[in-house]
Design brief:
heterodimer; A: alpha/beta; elongated; B: 322 residues; two-stranded antiparallel sheet
Chain lengths: 297, 322
């Protein structure tokens, strides 16, 4: 979306973006087959060491991971961290489990088995979701952990956001996690989650912005913003980064790239809510522009 | 028989040498083409072996009996995928082989002559449908149908068997087996048809002469004669079933688990490689390479076996009868 808008205003610039998954993107950046990569999970220290140059992380959007489900009547459900972890650990197996009923008084929950749906491929969405579960639930942290692909204790896998949403849509009693954009576009019900401050929050671009505003963001922009402390913060939020080398080998391309990225983090942010992503808060935008200024050619 | 007259002139001599050169070049080109295939196979095998070194050193033989696939602690095991691949392929064979052999019998002996070619073409068209399309059809049509109408009936009537216990999700081993059965039907049917056609008519005529009924002719004279060839056709189908990726990955549930229930979600070698390859690195990539090596080795062995069996029938037997 951004590359088309930028190209319209800056004729002669062609930006090519391919959706291949964070891991492949990082691999190609490290082997310098591409000028920039994108990822939903920050690079690990070892990954950064194995790269031929210093790589900068530029967060460009923040998004929410929404919990969606398939129940008759599409009731609005509320979950809290332990219940969600319990479902995905396979400990809570029925919809009318007392823990779920207690959180949702007034909702007619059927005596039906919960079918857990997760991603079968490696994904940044999985990373954010498992990051959240590891932070809020000790059991999850020790048994499963956080990664782009994990050893799921239970459930079926779907390939891509489409796969998960497809499975959830087809299976009565299913629960799954998808990017907020997908849930909204396909009109799937999304659950409210209890955040760190104790309030139940609906995933929206606004609640994600609030999460980002209250999260601790270090200078190198490698951070996690799950379970942010803000009052109206949505707990399962994560940023997406553009990755590029601080020292650009091709000066002409490098200048255009920096220009494009500066546009993305300022002008481009206005387009984010259209796709249900949260725009970056102003303070973050300013810090990123400063970081982009350090790029040499 | 006519021989080419020996040209007396020198122009004729040049012409003869020229055509011999052309022959030799043609011969070499064809040889190169044939060798390329073999070389490619060896190269692929080599790459797979090279790529699995890390994993082979870390896990050794434990790799084949371990049920864990944990990218977080980098512990990998092949057992659930080997199980899923074998079981879904066996289910596919159990469904496809009787159907294919029946179709082949119909096409060679029972169908009216005007129907044979159109029906054959129709079956071959099944083979032209891309794997992904079967996968999509599987998710949107087959899975809901099975989950709502077929599986509950199956569970009610055969639920005492451990194969039909467990939660019905729609996706799972049996569904994958059914889709793969549809996909291998054309190849098994067409090879079976060839095998049955190669049964000499003398066999059938002899059985009829002895007063056998239609079914007895088919059973005694045709099927028992063609036994080995049909088995070869089935093994060829198995070879195809083992490698089926896209259709399987969409309907099998993608959960590496080993469960006796056919309703349970599972995963196959090809499916997990397709799913996890783009994001894999280091040990997990090496483990996927090793899975690929296992798959390639099994597929090659099975295909060679099938070729031997079919070849043995269609040549040796004709020699015997003549």
């Amino acid at each position: 979306m951004w590359k088309d808008a930028y190209s319209k205003n800056h004729p002669g610039v062609q930006i090519n973006y391919q959706s291949v998954g964070s891991g492949a993107g990082i691999k190609q950046l490290t082997s310098q087959t591409v000028n920039f990569g994108a990822s939903d999970a920050p690079m690990t220290d070892e990954a950064m060491k194995s790269a031929p140059g210093k790589i900068l992380h530029i967060p460009v959007v923040a998004g929410a991971v929404a919990i969606t489900y398939n129940l008759p009547g599409d009731p609005k459900l509320k979950f809290d961290p332990d219940t969600l972890a319990g479902i995905y650990l396979g400990q809570i197996t029925k919809w009318n489990d007392p823990k779920i009923v207690a959180l949702n008084p007034g909702v007619q929950l059927p005596d039906q088995a919960i079918t857990v749906v997760h991603r079968s491929d490696g994904s940044g969405t999985t990373f954010i979701f498992t990051d959240y579960l590891s932070v809020v639930n000790q059991d999850w942290a020790t048994k499963v952990g956080k990664n782009t692909s994990v050893n799921w204790p239970t459930g079926v896998g779907g390939k891509g956001n489409e796969g998960v949403f497809g499975q959830v849509k087809q299976l009565p009693g299913a629960i799954g996690y998808v990017e907020l954009g997908y849930a909204v576009e396909n009109k799937l019900p999304v659950a409210d989650l209890k955040n760190k401050a104790g309030k139940f929050v609906t995933p929206t671009p606004d609640s994600v912005s609030k999460a980002m505003a209250t999260a601790t963001i270090p200078d190198d922009f490698r951070f996690s913003m799950v379970d942010a402390p803000g009052d109206d913060a949505y707990p399962i939020s994560g940023a997406s980064w553009v990755l590029l080398y601080q020292k650009q080998s091709d000066a002409a391309k490098g200048k255009v790239l920096v220009d494009f990225l500066k546009w993305c983090v300022t002008e481009g942010q206005k387009m984010s809510p259209q796709l249900d992503y949260a725009p970056l808060p102003d303070s973050v935008q300013q810090r990123e522009l400063k970081l982009l200024d350090t790029v040499t050619f | 028989m006519t021989t080419k007259p020996v040209p007396a002139s020198s122009a004729g001599m040049r012409e003869r040498i020229g055509s011999r050169m052309a022959d030799r070049v043609f011969h070499l080109l064809c040889l190169a083409g044939a060798l390329t295939v073999g070389v490619l196979l060896v190269l692929v095998l080599w790459e797979l072996i090279k790529g699995s070194q890390l994993s082979m050193h870390k896990f050794g033989w434990r790799f084949f009996i371990s049920r864990t696939w944990d990218p977080n602690v980098d512990d990998y095991g092949a057992l659930p995928f080997i199980y899923g691949t074998i079981v879904s392929s066996i289910i596919a064979l159990l469904i496809a082989v009787p159907l294919s052999v029946g179709t082949a019998i119909y096409l060679t002996d029972l169908a009216p002559l005007w129907l044979r070619q159109p029906l054959t073409s129709l079956i071959e068209m099944l083979a032209a449908v891309p794997s992904v399309i079967w996968g999509l059809w599987g998710i949107f049509v087959l899975v809901p149908l099975l989950r709502k109408d077929v599986y509950p009936v199956l569970q009610k009537s055969l639920g005492f068997l451990p194969f039909f216990k467990g939660t019905i999700l729609g996706v799972g081993l049996l569904t994958a087996g059914i889709i793969v059965a549809i996909m291998i039907l054309p190849i098994v049917a067409s090879v079976s048809r060839e095998v049955l056609r190669s049964v000499p008519n003398l066999q059938r005529e002899a059985a009829y002469a002895l007063g056998a009924t239609r079914w007895e002719v088919t059973r005694i004279a045709v099927l028992s004669y063609a036994r080995r060839g049909l088995f070869g056709a089935a093994v060829l189908g198995l070879g195809r079933a083992l490698g089926e990726t896209m259709a399987v990955t969409m309907v099998i549930g993608n959960q590496p688990s080993v469960s006796p229930s056919v309703f349970a979600p599972a995963d196959t070698l090809a499916s997990v490689i397709a799913n996890q390859f783009p994001e894999a690195a280091g040990i997990s990539l090496s483990a996927l390479f090793e899975l690929g090596l296992v798959l390639l080795a099994v597929t090659i062995v099975i295909n060679i076996l099938a070729q031997i069996m079919i070849h043995a029938l269609t040549t040796a037997e004709t020699r015997r009868v003549a």
